[in-house]
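Thread: quick sanity check before group meeting

JM: Hey all, I'm pulling together slides for Thursday and realized we never actually wrote out the predicted structure for the chain we discussed last week. Dropping the sequence here so it's in one place. If anyone has concerns about the input, flag it before I start.
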Amino acid sequence: MRRALLVVNPAARRARRVHAAAREAFARAGVECDEVVTAAPGDGAAACAGRHGAYDAVFTLGGDGTAMEVVGALAGTGRAVGVLAGGTGNLIARTLGIPLDVRRAVPALVAGDVARIDLGLLDSGRRFAFAAGVGIDARMIEGTPAALKRRLGVLAYVITAARAVLRRERFMVRVTVDGEVHEREAAAVMVANFGAVLNELIWLGPGIRQDDGLLDLCVFSPRTHRDAARIIWRLLRKRFDEQDACLLYRPGRRFRVETTPSCPAQADGELLGATPFEVVVEPGAATLLVPRS
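JM (edit): ok, ran it. Output follows.
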């Protein structure tokens, strides 16, 4: 790699603080790096759409919203995107196994592998790499104050999610997967692309792959704290070999998620608005840089 474009979102939690370290890391790796510093949503996508052809790769330094803005803009072009952690949750970087320290991440991606992954395309035109969902995960995003995120980082999300679990908030969901309808009470619903998160600490379900041309419905329906503890144990231990009335999994290419009452929804850590929403899979649409395995 000789030339790269770095898209920086200075409003992200860590981006301003690690910006200089990222520049130095590219210089040490022998990569000529031009920069675009965003001032408003859409700036990164606009810059990449017009300039990506002059570079070997495009990197983002910001949160998951910045990363997906660029990934979405370059979907289908074959231009590789490297995600540097500069936000609060940094879900995409964590899922891809990218070091959170940019001084380690830059050389790992410059010398890394190229992966083609599927994307989810929402009816709003927005894309996601990891998952879209309603329930506990969306409440976590919606209910975490900005001041708490700045002070505690990803721990702030953990605290908010724990509160949501203890409240045992449930809703009725109707999900249509490739024409087949599924209805049940749920605490969380996800249309997932990746099967594991946090360096494979937590597994969402069986057989979920980011490069199989499918997305996977995951519905979690605990009725008691004991049910919730059992589900968490299964996700941590990758135990999906037995039937469980509190878990529902279905792969598919087209999804519609409806809830009663209407619930906030999120995709890759960014709020979408309220249900209903629809998703289709875009097979192999994104080209991402990942550390060499």
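AS: nice. The chain has a mean pLDDT of 85. The longest strand covers residues 277-290.
JM: adding both to the slides.
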